[in-house]
Amino acid sequence: MSSKTRFVLLGLLQEQPLTGYEMKQLIDIRFRFFWNESFGQIYPELKSMEEDGLVVATDLSGARKQKRYAITKSGSRELKLWLASPNEKESIRIELLLKVYFAKYGSKDILASQIKQFKEAHHIDYSILTAFQEELRSIPDPENNHQDILRVIEFGLKTNEAYLSWCDDTIAYLEGTR
Amino acid sequence: MSSKTRFVLLGLLQEQPLTGYEMKQLIDIRFRFFWNESFGQIYPELKSMEEDGLVVATDLSGARKQKRYAITKSGSRELKLWLASPNEKESIRIELLLKVYFAKYGSKDILASQIKQFKEAHHIDYSILTAFQEELRSIPDPENNHQDILRVIEFGLKTNEAYLSWCDDTIAYLEGTR
DNA sequence: CGGCGCATGTAACTTGTTACATGATTCC
DNA sequence: GGAATCATGTAACAAGTTACATGCGCCG
Prior knowledge:
The structure is a homodimer.
Chain A: H1 5-15, E1 18-19, H2 20-30, H3 39-51, E2 55-60, E3 66-71, H4 73-84, E4 91-93, H5 95-101, H6 108-138, H7 147-176
Helix pairs in contact in A: 1-4, 2-3, 6-7
The structure holds a DNA duplex.
């Protein structure tokens, strides 16, 4: 289970030079439903990537000591290599499902409220995804550059729809057995 | 992000006494689509749980040096406490989606084959879930003990259906743009 | 008698989170 | 001038994986 932080950052930099802070923001917004990275990973990783010659940093003078990173030829090569390499099994951990599995040892009411919370969180995800989708669709895209990203959004929409519908069924079940 | 290993094990032990090895097997089979634990977590955790008085071990003499753990009153209390406590945000990491997002920098053909692999893996998950569902339904359940577990299976089925349908759409899209 | 599955355990390592420190800029 | 946000970084810690060591029992 090797770290993928490096490749996420390279992927973002392939589009345009960015600061570590900006990359974190992009990951939080665009990848929120299937990926995350913390500053504690990003900054040290950028340093090590620079040492490996995959990126070059420019110290923005004047501005608030920000470092803008750009990808190098070598970095692009690494990115392509990773894109063609096999994927690791996705890792998923949903505490709520453990609690549903063990539901008979706990309170149905509390569980129902936990599911409602889960539902709300994913309803927000769903809204964000819908907004992002509309935004992308509203921008003219003659070269079909947005299609790939729209596929990712579609994944998020479909899985979140599944989540929401499961929540409704399960809340109904829990409240029906009171 | 505190570890939940302890509670998973307590939950399993609430049903019946088990060895570490058996718990690992149950987690691998029953929780495979939303949770995992390794021996490297399980054995040290069981030791620490015994020290905390949440479980008691019985050394099965004669048999191949196995230790069977049983939950204590104190352990049951801990389990109930956790069941009523708030959940951590679920963690999900899907490398494939990063690659779809960055698809324009790589090969469409390779990506399509990666998605096919993903699809196959989840088709297997789907089959396992269906089999487990049928098994549970075939066992008479006068006290509705299986209902909670069936809800968990339902979650797996719904999300996997979403995955599979997304795979088909996305493969079609990739192969259409060749 | 050899290989596989059962069974437990540990040590080294990698990965990831959190908390903290520092300081600039912007906006009210 | 104070709060929020921008911005970078590190150190301590927690969590999780992997590889290894050990040995029994069963089946062919």
